[in-house]
From TrEMBL:
Cofactor note: Binds 2 heme b groups non-covalently with two histidine residues as axial ligands. Binds one heme group covalently by a single cysteine link with no axial amino acid ligand. This heme was named heme ci.
Gene: petB
Protein name: Cytochrome b6
Family of the protein in this entry: Belongs to the cytochrome b family. PetB subfamily.
Record's keyword annotation contains Lyase: no
Length: 215
């Protein structure tokens, strides 16, 4: 094992990376409230793992979606646990994100030189809410269906382009298979990819600029 490690160490300088991570200065004012961003990240990773597991059973069609969710809950091995963890960690992620935004705002974390960190954080907050909206529809039960219908109907109030935006979101003039397909694609591919990119940017900037001041 030591030879394998030495081979990687020679090429990647792993120890230097580890030393840089472990020797980073943490200000004395840091407390539990400064962990909210990390908890949000943990919830996201749980979401990715449990969501990926459910893709093996979920069927994104209007005729089979609800039945496939029922199968996950009643027939698939530990399916009930995986879906429950996915659901509750989603709620926890939203809650931790809201608390994190409040903490950053109250400690002035949006001020110079951390403006870009704040902007990426706001984008991540929007993406988090988008996860909730798209994921809520996937069981395609009555609650999910009407939630989609209401949410996608909101842009219709916008002058000139409102109707076009509604059709873009729904995939047609009414809620149906095209809508579910789009929401499923957003929830399982587009949003996770965007979230991963903005999280990387967010944490790299925090790493570079350090933690904001105390309350």
């Amino acid at each position: 094992m030591s030879k394998v490690y030495d081979w990687f160490e020679e090429r990647l300088e792993i120890q230097a990376i580890v030393d840089d991570i472990t020797s980073k200065y943490v200000p004395p004012h840091v407390n539990i409230f400064y962990c909210l961003g990390g908890i949000t990240l943990t919830c996201f990773l749980v979401q990715v793992a449990t969501g990926f597991a459910m893709t093996f059973y979920y069927r994104p069609t209007v005729t089979e979606a609800f039945a496939s969710v029922q199968y996950i809950m009643t027939e698939a091995n530990l399916g009930w646990l995986i879906r429950s963890v996915h659901r509750w960690s989603a709620s926890m992620m939203v809650l931790m994100m809201i608390l994190h935004v409040f903490r950053v705002y109250l400690t002035g974390g949006f001020k110079k030189p951390r403006e870009l960190t704040w902007i990426t954080g706001v984008v991540l907050a929007v993406l988090t809410v988008s996860f909730g909206v798209t994921g809520y529809s996937l069981p395609w039960d009555q609650i999910g269906y009407w939630a989609v219908k209401i949410v996608t109907g909101v842009p219709e109030a916008i002058p000139v382009i409102g109707s076009s935006l509604v059709e873009l979101l729904r995939g047609s003039s009414s809620v149906g298979q095209s809508t579910l397909t789009r929401f499923y694609s957003l929830h399982t591919f587009v949003l996770p990819l965007l979230t991963a990119v903005f999280m990387l940017m967010h944490f790299l900037m925090i790493r570079k600029q350090g933690i904001s001041g105390p309350l």
